[in-house]
Amino acid sequence: MVNKEVISGEGVPSSPLPFSPALKVNNMVFVSGQASVDENGKIVNDTFENEVRRSFDNAKKILAAAGLDFSDVVQVRNYVGNQEDLAEFNAIYKEYFQAPFPARTTLIGCLGTLLKFEVDLVAYVE
């Protein structure tokens, strides 16, 4: 049987949707997709840059609730709404992650019109 621990805490965004903000399973923490939402899960439409930063800041709060930070992240999946925003995304990404960079996947043009960006990630707990 797999032991799953829900990661929650102060500042961790909640959602009325049926998912956990993150799950700790053994030595791994799986952070659900984070978008530009407030602490109640309400979407905050903004510029591409601000949506990316809000998404990463939400992920940072979840990692902190698990006692982790971005240096513990081993995989990142990014969802960029428009190809034109890819260069800006890469510049912002380097503010949050440093070498050795996590394994990464970036999908473009997959979000419809509701969001400009979303990210999910996996971190390792020592």
How would you summarize the topology of this molecule?
Layout: E1 4-6, E2 22-25, E3 28-34, H1 48-65, E4 73-80, H2 86-96, E5 103-108, E6 117-124
Parallel strand pairs: 4-5
Antiparallel strand pairs: 1-2, 2-3, 3-6, 4-6
Q: Can you describe this structure?
A:
This protein is of the alpha+beta class and 126 residues long. The chain has two helices and six strands. 23% of the residues lie in helices and 29% in strands. It has a six-stranded mixed beta sheet with strand order 1-2-3-6-4-5. Strand 2 (22-25) and strand 3 form a beta hairpin. The longest helix is centred in the middle third of the chain and has 18 residues, at 48-65. The radius of gyration is 14 Å and the shape is globular.
List low-confidence stretches. Answer: none
Number of DSSP-assigned strands: 6
Give the SSE order as H and E letters. EEEHEHEE
Task: Decide which structural class fits the backbone.
Answer: alpha+beta
* Helicity range: 10-25%
Largest sheet: 6 strands, mixed
The radius of gyration computed from the alpha-carbon positions, rounded to a whole number of angstroms, is 14 Å
How far apart, in Å, are the first and last alpha carbons? 21 Å
**Continuous helix count:** 2
- Note the overall shape: globular
Mean pLDDT: 95
Strand arrangement, major sheet: 1-2-3-6-4-5
